[in-house]
Each structure stands twice: as structure tokens, then as C-alpha cells.
């Protein structure tokens, strides 16, 4: 039965994919097939994110709303098929012509799929649930949103970890999984299915954005790899002494080092390794791209942004197709794309507010530039064309603002105004280095080559890149959320544009050097043989440069893979090396709750971030983790303190506070017993309804 329901969920999603593709054929009739597929996936995902939610505002988040949304989506596809039949021309997929795309996108997609597979709540042999390093934190929050939106059937949704508080977080990244959970799929499948869809769209969107921008496969390939895997000089900290370097001079030494570093503990209390090499594979966030003690904060796009941060994942799935449309409309003059762009931009705020803001900043920069530039145009016909283009630009802005305004006013601004999101702060999250050295060591050659790449590229590329510089400048002086570090959700858009111009600079330099090497070889023929010294030297320099730009990212991704349960290639054995996020006892308890307790029940539990009740049942708890609530800007302090009082001083306040917060059940597990000085005598008077090992659930009343 589980397989059937998962299969039905997949079919449900494929209807959106098909309708999106038919819409893309209608909107982009002259684009080649692979671009139509990418735009179709983005449009289909936009409908999958929004149509069930729009229906839920009227009907509640239930199966009926999902089916109504499916019907609307199918109707859109049929209409696009009918009206686009004459204009749409879909070519075939030519493997030879798309080799560069396949070489780049297939391995990147496989990386993401593997990490999702071993990072999103895997079943361990002891009955517990495991995750990987990067999903030990945020995934717990997202699972709570996914289950509560589905189980409680309340819309718009409320915080299950802070009841009676409206959810101002951009929740569409989780409600999209709630759709499949509501349709009967397992929580793991509901979590992975749309995430993998979005991830594939991101990878294709990034590659085709670079390809469209620079019109060269080689630049698109390098820029895409730099964006997803590129990093700085953090790898140097893991080879930081002569002893380490000297010990890795033979294959046997490398094999021994790998054996030592792959020996991973699966608890949160990892013993500190003896050296930096073993720390890489054992340490908790001690990687070449994320090691706070050494000021390494420029994280990896896949391991730290896309896999754990669902809002970023789904936001980028719309952002990069939108950036391609923006560039084509504003720079190449494809004015017809402004309308579609306005709709996609307007759909972004409740998916990922940072992506909406980044697109807006780049758009504002471009429209300001275009507005000023028109006064320098002397030819009247050209000036008239420029004014028409500006008119379309403004139309795009109006559509985006009209669609986005209800989301921003009804959700985002309400929560951000209460949480004091906006503040001045210089130098982002750099706390250990000078401003310049911080960026050099964190971004490496990508940062060092940024200025020459900017000066070397053509004017229209500098204009488009200018919007990215605006984002960078703002993020260096303004913080847009309580967590200063979260400015990277904007900074990575600037990073993407930087990867583009740097890749262009490198590939142009390589072309000139290769041509120079060939010319010298042809002029220096002797006895019918060509000297290859120059070409070999250039090749070595090129390989070292690219290798140094990718090494930190490769090391980080390797660490992330082995941080979850995984198949070890060397031993040909499956290793349960992941982090235990829910114990077997709590997993059994949540299954019992799902079968026996009403969806609107409220539980008194500890405020640990990996709260099994919130994650796996969708029921309300009195107060959740401060690590989530604080950075969402909501006031949780009274509830947080009252949880402690109810456990430790129940004789004085439990009855009063239990009535105040509507507490129906009280949990006693390891988190509660270890986190509070519990007055056990008081709670023994309550009725136990479930018990296993050291975990007991009591009913109030």
C-alpha cells in the first residue's frame, strides 16, 4: 500500500511537470528542447507550489484541495497545448550537441540525489532515524512544518512549535511536501520527491543561465562547477604542517589516511581527532568551506545551501530561470518575456523571500541604468525603442509587486517588523580576519580573479553583473534577518554572477594560451615533430588553477556524504554513520500518536530542536527550539520559561499553565529527564497512556 501511495504521489507531480512543459512550449516556442524542459520544470514547480495553497485558503489543506489544484494544473496544460499547437516547435534531444550539459548536470544531479537519499531521515537497524551533518538542524524544523500543515488542516498555517502564532516563514517550500503527505505518501518520500524535482531544476537552470549569458559551452561548464563545488583556500588548513604533507607522499600513506578519516562516530559527541586530516571526516562542521574557528564561512552550495535549506532550494529553482529571462528581456531585447518574468517574480516571496529580493535588486539596477542611458541616445528611433523597452520593464515590475504585495504584507513584513530583522552591520559574518583576507581565503581565486574578469568582459556583461555588485555592497552594510550569517542567501546570487565572469575570463585566457602554444608548436617543427612543452605547461597551470578552486568543495562534499548512512566503496559495506535524530522509542511513540491521538492535541515536551512529536506527528507542542524561533523573529520567551516551570515546579503552576496552553499530554523522555529537574512525584498522579523503555507519555485530566 505504501508503494502504491508513493507511486500515486509521483504521478500527481508528473502532471505538473507535463503542464509546465506545455506552458513552456507556448511561451518559449523558439527555444531548443532542453531549455523548454528547464523552463517547463520551473513553471510546473511554480504551479505545484501555489495551486494547492490557493485552493487550501478556500477549502483547507486536505485531499479535496489537492485534487482541485491538480484539475486546474491539467486545464492550464490543455489550454497551452491547444493555443500553442501552431506556434510551438519542439525539437529532438541531440546527445552530441548536449554533451557539455550532460557532463556537467548529470554528476551534479547525482550528487544531490545521493545526499538527499542518505540525509533525509533514513531508518537505522536499531529502529532509530538517522540524518547527515547538514540536515541534523534545519530538517527537523521543516519536517515539523510539513507534518503540521497536513495533519492540522489549518490554513494559513500556524507554528506547531509556538501555537497561536501565524507562520510568517516562507512556508511554500514545506507545504509542497505537505501535499504529498496529505495524499498518503510516507514522510520521507514526501520530503524527497519535490526537493529532488526542485534540485534538478536548479542545476539545469544554473547551467542554462550561464550558457545563455556567455554563449559558450566551456564557460557554462566551468561556471556551473565553480558555483556548485567551487571554494577558497580552506583546504590549506587540512595540510597545514610539514608532517602532514610529508606523510602523504605514497599511495600507501594516502590509503592509511583515508582509513583513519573515514572512521566516523555516529553520535553528536564526536571525539576530537588527533590531526586536521581526520578532523575533516570526523569533526562537526570542520570542513574547508565551513570551519568557524578558522574564519571559513563561504559554505558549499550543495552541502550547506540546497540540501538543508529548503526555502533556498525552491527559491533558486525559480530564481535562475528568472535571471535568464531577465537578462534576455533587458539586455537582448526579448520584451515578451517581461510578462512571464513578472508572474514568476510575484510568486517568489512565500517560496524564498531572499530570492525575490535578489531578483528585485538586480532588476532595479538594470532599470535605473536603462533609464539613465536613454538620455545619452541621440538617434530618435533608438530612443523611442528604449522607451518602449522601459515600458515593458515597468510592466514587469507592476505585475511582480501586485502579486507579491499580499504575501509580503500578510506574512513577511508582519513577522519581520516584530522581530527587528533590519539593522546596520559592516563586514558580514567576518569576526577573525581583515576584510580583504576574509574574502581571499574564503573564495580563493574566484575572488582574486573577480576584478580582472570584470574589467575584461564586455560592457553588457558588466551592466548585468552590476546588480550582483549592488547585492554584495548592501550585504556588507545591512543585515536583513536576525542571523547575520543568513545574508549569504543574498550573497550567493552575487557569487553566481561572479562565477560566470570569472569562468569567462579563465576560458578566454586558456583559449589564447592554447592558441599561442599551437602557434609555437607549428613554427618550431623539427624532424616532423611538434614540441609540446608550452602546451603541457599551460595545461598543468590550468589544471592546478581549476583544482585549487574545486578542492575545498570536493572535500566538503566527501565529508557530507560520509556523515550520513552510506555505502562504503572501499569495504563494500553499508555503514550506519549518520547522526541519530530520533530514537527508536520516540519513533514508536510518534507512530502510536499518529494512530490514536487527535490532530489538534497539544503536548508538553522539552524544547529540543529534534522534537519527535513536532517532527513526525504534526501536533502542537507548548514551545519549540529557540534556535528556530529566535531567528524567525517571534516572541517565544514566556512559553519557553513556562515549559521549565511546568516540569520543575508543577505543584505551583502546572494546572494553571496547562489550562492556559491547552496541554493534553506530557512527555517524559531523555530530553525532558536530562534537561529539567523534574518533580516526578507530581506527575505520577497523571494517567500513563504509553510507555517503552525510559519514555512515558501521560494524559492530562
Break the fold down into its secondary structure elements and pairings.
Elements: H1 2-27, H2 33-59, H3 63-83, H4 99-119, E1 122-123, E2 129-131, H5 138-152, H6 172-182, H7 187-214, H8 217-229, H9 242-246, H10 251-261, H11 276-282, H12 301-306, H13 310-330, H14 337-346, H15 353-373, H16 380-419, E3 423-424, H17 435-443, H18 445-448, H19 450-456, H20 459-477, E4 478-479, H21 488-523, H22 533-562, E5 566-568, E6 573-575, E7 579-582, H23 584-596, E8 602-604, H24 612-617, E9 620-621, H25 626-629, H26 637-648, H27 650-661, E10 665-668, H28 670-675, H29 680-683, E11 687-692, E12 695-699
Parallel strand pairs: 8-9, 8-10
Antiparallel strand pairs: 1-2, 2-7, 3-4, 5-6, 10-12, 11-12
Helix pairs in contact: 1-2, 1-3, 1-7, 2-3, 2-6, 2-7, 4-7, 4-8, 5-6, 6-7, 7-8, 7-13, 8-21, 8-22, 10-11, 13-14, 13-15, 14-16, 15-16, 15-20, 19-21, 20-21, 21-22, 26-27
Amino acid at each position: 500500500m505504501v508503494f502504491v501511495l508513493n507511486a500515486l504521489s509521483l504521478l500527481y507531480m508528473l502532471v505538473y511537470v507535463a503542464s509546465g512543459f506545455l506552458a513552456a512550449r507556448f511561451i518559449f516556442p523558439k527555444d531548443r528542447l532542453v531549455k523548454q524542459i528547464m523552463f517547463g520544470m520551473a513553471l510546473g514547480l511554480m504551479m505545484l507550489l501555489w495551486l494547492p495553497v490557493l485552493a487550501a485558503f478556500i477549502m483547507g489543506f486536505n485531499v479535496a484541495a489537492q485534487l482541485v489544484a491538480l484539475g486546474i494544473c491539467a486545464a492550464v496544460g490543455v489550454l497551452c497545448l491547444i493555443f500553442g499547437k501552431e506556434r510551438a516547435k519542439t525539437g529532438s534531444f541531440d546527445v552530441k550537441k548536449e554533451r557539455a550539459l550532460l557532463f556537467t548536470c548529470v554528476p551534479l544531479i547525482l550528487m544531490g540525489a545521493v545526499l538527499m537519499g542518505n540525509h533525509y531521515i533514513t531508518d537505522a537497524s536499531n529502529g532509530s532515524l538517522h540524518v547527515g551533518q547538514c540536515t541534523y538542524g534545519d530538517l527537523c524544523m521543516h519536517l515539523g512544518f510539513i507534518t503540521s500543515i497536513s495533519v492540522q488542516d489549518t490554513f494559513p498555517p500556524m507554528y506547531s512549535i509556538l501555537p497561536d502564532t501565524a507562520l510568517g516563514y516562507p512556508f511554500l517550500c514545506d507545504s509542497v511536501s505537505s501535499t504529498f503527505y496529505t495524499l498518503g505518501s510516507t514522510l520521507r518520500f514526501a520530503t524527497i520527491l519535490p526537493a529532488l524535482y526542485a534540485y534538478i531544476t536548479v542545476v539545469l537552470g544554473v547551467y542554462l543561465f550561464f550558457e545563455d549569458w556567455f554563449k559558450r559551452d566551456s564557460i557554462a561548464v566551468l561556471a556551473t562547477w565553480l558555483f556548485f563545488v567551487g571554494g577558497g583556500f580552506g583546504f590549506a588548513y587540512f595540510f597545514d604542517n610539514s608532517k602532514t604533507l610529508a606523510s602523504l607522499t605514497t599511495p600507501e600513506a594516502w590509503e592509511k589516511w583515508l582509513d583513519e578519516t573515514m572512521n566516523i562516530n555516529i553520535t553528536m559527541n564526536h571525539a576530537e581527532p588527533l590531526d586536521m586530516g581526520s578532523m575533516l571526516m570526523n569533526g562537526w562542521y570542520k570542513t574547508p568551506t565551513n570551519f568557524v574557528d578558522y574564519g571559513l564561512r563561504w559554505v558549499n552550495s550543495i552541502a550547506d545551501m540546497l540540501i538543508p535549506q529548503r526555502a533556498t532550494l525552491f527559491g533558486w529553482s525559480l530564481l535562475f530561470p528568472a535571471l535568464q529571462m531577465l537578462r534576455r528581456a533587458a539586455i537582448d531585447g526579448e520584451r515578451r518575456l517581461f510578462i512571464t518574468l513578472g508572474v514568476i517574480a510575484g510568486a517568489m516571496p512565500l517560496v524564498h523571500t531572499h530570492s525575490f529580493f535578489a531578483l528585485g535588486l538586480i532588476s532595479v539596477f538594470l532599470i535605473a541604468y536603462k533609464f539613465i542611458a536613454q538620455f545619452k541616445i541621440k538617434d530618435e528611433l533608438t530612443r523611442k525603442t528604449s522607451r518602449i523597452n522601459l515600458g515593458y520593464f515597468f510592466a514587469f515590475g507592476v505585475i511582480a509587486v501586485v502579486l507579491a504585495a499580499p504575501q509580503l504584507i500578510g506574512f513577511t513584513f508582519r513577522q519581520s517588523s516584530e522581530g527587528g530583522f533590519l539593522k546596520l552591520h559592516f563586514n558580514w559574518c567576518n569576526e577573525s580576519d581583515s576584510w580583504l583576507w576574509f574574502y581571499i581565503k574564503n573564495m580563493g581565486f574566484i575572488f582574486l580573479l573577480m576584478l580582472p574578469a570584470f574589467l575584461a568582459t564586455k560592457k553588457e556583461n558588466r551592466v548585468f553583473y552590476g546588480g550582483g555588485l549592488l547585492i554584495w555592497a548592501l550585504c556588507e552594510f545591512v543585515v536583513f534577518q536576525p542571523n547575520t550569517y543568513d545574508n549569504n542567501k543574498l550573497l550567493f546570487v552575487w557569487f553566481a554572477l561572479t562565477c560566470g565572469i570569472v569562468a569567462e575570463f579563465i576560458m578566454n585566457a586558456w583559449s589564447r594560451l592554447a592558441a599561442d602554444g599551437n602557434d609555437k608548436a607549428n613554427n618550431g617543427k623539427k624532424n616532423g615533430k611538434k614540441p609540446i612543452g608550452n602546451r603541457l605547461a599551460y595545461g598543468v597551470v590550468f589544471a592546478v588553477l581549476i583544482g585549487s578552486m574545486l578542492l575545498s568543495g570536493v572535500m566538503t562534499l566527501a565529508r557530507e556524504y560520509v556523515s550520513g548512512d552510506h555505502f562504503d566503496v572501499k569495504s563494500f559495506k553499508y555503514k550506519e554513520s549518520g547522526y541519530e535524530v530520533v530514537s527508536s522509542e520516540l519513533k514508536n511513540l510518534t507512530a502510536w500518536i499518529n494512530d490514536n491521538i487527535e490532530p489538534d492535541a497539544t503536548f508538553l515536551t522539552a524544547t529540543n530542536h529534534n522534537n519527535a512529536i513536532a517532527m513526525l506527528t504534526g501536533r502542537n507542542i507548548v514551545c519549540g527550539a529557540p534556535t528556530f524561533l529566535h531567528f524567525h523573529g517571534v516572541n517565544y520567551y514566556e512559553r519557553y520559561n513556562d515549559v521549565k516551570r511546568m516540569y520543575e515546579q508543577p505543584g505551583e503552576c502546572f494546572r494553571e499553565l496547562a489550562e492556559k496552553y491547552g496541554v493534553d499530554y506530557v512527555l517524559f523522555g531523555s530530553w525532558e529527564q536530562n534537561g529539567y529537574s523534574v518533580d516526578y512525584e507530581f506527575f505520577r498522579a497523571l494517567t500513563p497512556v504509553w510507555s517503552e523503555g525510559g519514555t512515558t507519555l501521560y494524559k492530562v485530566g
